[in-house]
Amino acid sequence: MGHLAKKEEILRQLQKRLHQNPVGLPEHSSVYEILSILFDEREAQVGAKFPIGLVSLEEIEKATGLEANELEEILKGMMKKGLVVSSTKEGKVRYVLSPGLTGFFEFTFMRTSEALPMKRLAELMAIYKNTPEFVQEFFSPGTTRGKAYVYNSVLPKVRSEILRFDEAAEHIKKAGRGSLGKCYCRHEAWHLGKNCSAPIEEICMSLGNASDFLVEQGFARRASVEELLETLKKAEDLGLVHIGDNVQEQTTFICNCCGCCCGFLQGITQFQLKHAITTTNYIASVEREECNGCGICADRCQIKAVKMMGDYPEVNREFCIGCGICAYHCPTGAMRMVEREKRVIPPKTYKELMIRLMKEKGRG
Fold first, then answer.
1. For the segment 7-24, what is each residue's pLDDT rounded down to a tens digit?
2. pLDDT for 93-107, tens place per residue?
3. Three-state secondary structure of the chain
4. Which of 55, 42, 51, 41 is nearest to 17 (CA)?
């Protein structure tokens, strides 16, 4: 009984530490069960005392009181599970405790594991992501964690260089390398028997340094810029939304998302939150003279921001995220992407995004 009480207390401490992240992990019975499945006791103890931010092995030693050899062994196991992420710069390795989302919830479903009760984890995560506490934390008003990227093929050839951060293809080209892996949202939905027909395998991307970690730990495979751009085109042909970090530079991931399974888009489709993700600087607009009333745009829109009203489509400007799906699939060219009247400028870097989220939540 004493050991059980001790384990429960360690998990409570771990949850409290995880809730200090820019995107926290609010208390709920389901989250404690998730943590108990993913973290063994030693990992939970290290996680509970893990310093905030990207830190050295020496800093973790000091915080946990463990010796380097033992700590390195524990961290190695945690990285294999995606509970800790490492980054190497100028020969120095630093570590960060993964958040729940976006973090080890996703990593867990980026591969198949016979060692984990995947269906139970999918059930628990579905319960947790529908709690008011989680919805408030992940979709809190203000700076968003994710943003939409626009299909660059639907944009005018002559366009603002300033707004290139809205284009997924530009992020891929600038990163110079990346990886391809499972869509964790649809994989999770598959375990619940709720996935749609969109692909699960090799459809979501990670870029730059983040891709190095995923490849090294077996969460994804290396992919060239050319293959990533081909996958982007495949996703556009399927009518999936490009979503990545809410940044101007060096996004760590680009997911190709459906409105039914994607955790980001469910903020709109399930919870009707206009601020669930940051929009692009573009918005859909209909040229009625060229429209044949086919309704393809309304059928394709993943968030139902386009609806047929009589013979013509209408765009709900409050919900349109400016992804470009409707324009890409419009057979007559009547649906076009035009610049929004007010510029939408995200944080410049991932670090700036995290700092802004921390400050807005009073954790900075």
1. 899 999 999 999 999 999
2. 999 999 999 999 999
3. CHHHHHHHHHHHHHHHHHCCCCCCCCCCHHHHHHHHHHCCHHHHHHHHCCCCCCECHHHHHHHHCCCHHHHHHHHHHHHHHCCEEEEEECCEEEEEECCHHHHHHHHHCCCCCCCCCHHHHHHHHHHHHCCHHHHHHHCCCCCCCEEEEECHHHCCCCCCHHHHHHEHHHHHHHHCCEEEECCHHHHHHHHCCCCCCCCCCCCEEEEHHHHHHHHHCCCCEEECHHHHHHHHHHHHHHCCEEEEECCCCCCCEEEEECCCCCHHHHHHHCCCCCCCCECCCEEEEECHHHCCCCCHHHHHCCCCCEEEECCEEEECCCCCCCCCHHHHHCCCCCEEEEECCCCCCCCCCHHHHHHHHHHHCCCC
4. 51
Per domain, the residue ranges of the chain are 2-104, 146-358
**Pairing mode of beta strands 146-149, 241-245:** antiparallel
Are 359 and 259 in contact by the 8 Å Cβ rule? The answer is no
According to CATH, the topology of domain 2-104 is: Arc Repressor Mutant, subunit A (1.10.10)
Global pTM value: 0.95
Q: At what angle do helices 41-48 and 57-64 cross, to 10 degrees?
A: 100
